[in-house]
Design goal:
The protein is α/β, with parallel strands linked by helices. It contains 10 helices and 6 strands; from the N terminus they run E-H-E-H-E-H-E-H-E-H-E-H-H-H-H-H. A 6-stranded parallel β-sheet has the order 2-1-3-4-5-6, with helices on both faces. Helix 2 packs parallel to helix 3 and helix 3 runs parallel beside helix 4.
Length: 215
């Protein structure tokens, strides 16, 4: 099944290169080109393409707003961001606008083909560099708000072993600490979590993903 594609980029040399490369791929047809977001919107209305390959920085109407308007009018269309920008604000804004994938212009053509195939399957494509940017940002900005965050690393370790059915002596041996130390940890865990039995601790550990009991 063929896929109709609209190219939106303010640099003609980019559009010409993409059209030439995509013409070599079976089942891919470029049905239009736009040099700014407003033109992309008009052409999308006319041709209703399956996919728009969208630049971000374009005159008149930028790629973020163009994406938002195209998808509002044609929810079945997929938009794939192809940009020189790897900054988090551009990536996040494009995904909030509704794109199905994001890759960089300095990537290989083979990556673009992979991205097209990915979004056609209703999946999301992220180039490795973009993925690393988002993961780094997530780690830097997201606080650990899980219920188990009140526990220390050692307490979480003890909790997992308790939930997995280890005895106090076995835990002490595994961690190379005294039985008294393990008992202290267990008491502190129960106090912090306001739980009063091993069964409750086990349910908590399963719910928090601390253990899956080998599932």
């Amino acid at each position: 099944m063929s896929i109709s594609i609209l190219l939106a980029d303010d640099h003609r040399i980019i559009r010409d290169g993409l059209r030439s490369l995509l013409s070599t791929m079976p089942g891919m047809e470029v049905v239009g080109e736009a040099e700014n977001g407003r033109q992309a919107l008009r052409i999308a209305r006319k041709h209703n393409p399956d996919l728009v390959i969208m630049d971000i920085s374009m005159p008149d109407l930028n790629g973020i707003e163009a994406t938002r308007q195209i998808l509002a009018e044609s929810p079945g269309t997929k938009v794939l961001a192809l940009s020189m920008h790897s900054d988090r604000q551009f990536v996040i804004q494009m995904f909030r606008a509704g794109v199905s994938g994001y890759l960089l212009k300095n990537g290989a053509f083979e990556e673009l083909v992979l991205a097209i195939d990915t979004v056609r399957k209703n999946e999301t494509y992220l180039s490795p560099k973009i993925a690393s940017v988002l993961v780094k940002d997530l780690l830097e900005t997201t606080e650990d708000n899980s219920a188990s965050s009140v526990l220390t690393p050692r307490e979480r370790e003890v909790l997992q072993l308790i939930a997995e059915g280890r005895s106090t002596k076995e835990i002490a041996s595994d961690l190379n600490v005294s039985v008294k130390t393990v008992e202290t940890h267990r008491r502190q865990i129960m106090d912090k979590l306001e739980l009063r039995s091993v069964a409750e601790l086990t349910k908590f550990a399963l719910r928090e993903g601390i253990t899956d009991l080998g599932a």
